[in-house]
Amino acid sequence: MSTEYGSVNPTDEEAPLLHTQVEPQTCWEKIKTKLHLHGHRVLISWIIILSVTAVLTLSFHFALKGHHHSAPPADGDDLILECVSDRSWFIATILAIFVGPFGIDRFYLGYIGWGIVKLLTAGLGGILWVVDIILILLNVLPDHNGCILH
């Protein structure tokens, strides 16, 4: 098969050029392509973030564990009795970090309504998840009876 100079091969016309004949992708297709190419990096980053959060939580818990003991007040008038929950601060923290978007931490503390809200909305898009982690870490969020976590 001999072709003359300047003639066009019919099979070359059907092959798409590099970027001129490729159909444009939608935004969602671009995201899917990037996740397909870099999905393992996203997963590894997520595992690293969760691990660092768990290590910081554990070190924070054990660093403050010895500081909770204080001397009782001198006179009985200043004595304020606070109830202490049977639910653990440590378990609530671990639940909030790892399964918080599903509301498991709120179910554990007895807040069934908020647990359902977090379950249906994935922690309000992650916002309530982060807020709950901070509230539980600072031991500001009591259980459903209003008692502080032990």
TrEMBL record:
Principal cellular location given in the protein's record: membrane
UniProt signal peptide: none
Cell location: Membrane
GO cellular component: membrane
Keywords, in A-Z order: Membrane, Transmembrane, Transmembrane helix
Record field: transmembrane: 42-64, 89-109, 116-141
Protein's membrane topology: Multi-pass membrane protein
Annotated TM2 domain residues: 86-134
InterPro entries listed in its UniProt record: TM2 (IPR007829), TM2D1-3-like (IPR050932)
PANTHER family noted in UniProt: BETA-AMYLOID BINDING PROTEIN-RELATED (PTHR21016), TM2 DOMAIN-CONTAINING PROTEIN DDB_G0277895-RELATED (PTHR21016:SF25)
Similarity-based family: Belongs to the TM2 family.
Name of the featured protein: TM2 domain-containing protein
Organism whose genome encodes this protein: Absidia glauca (Pin mould)
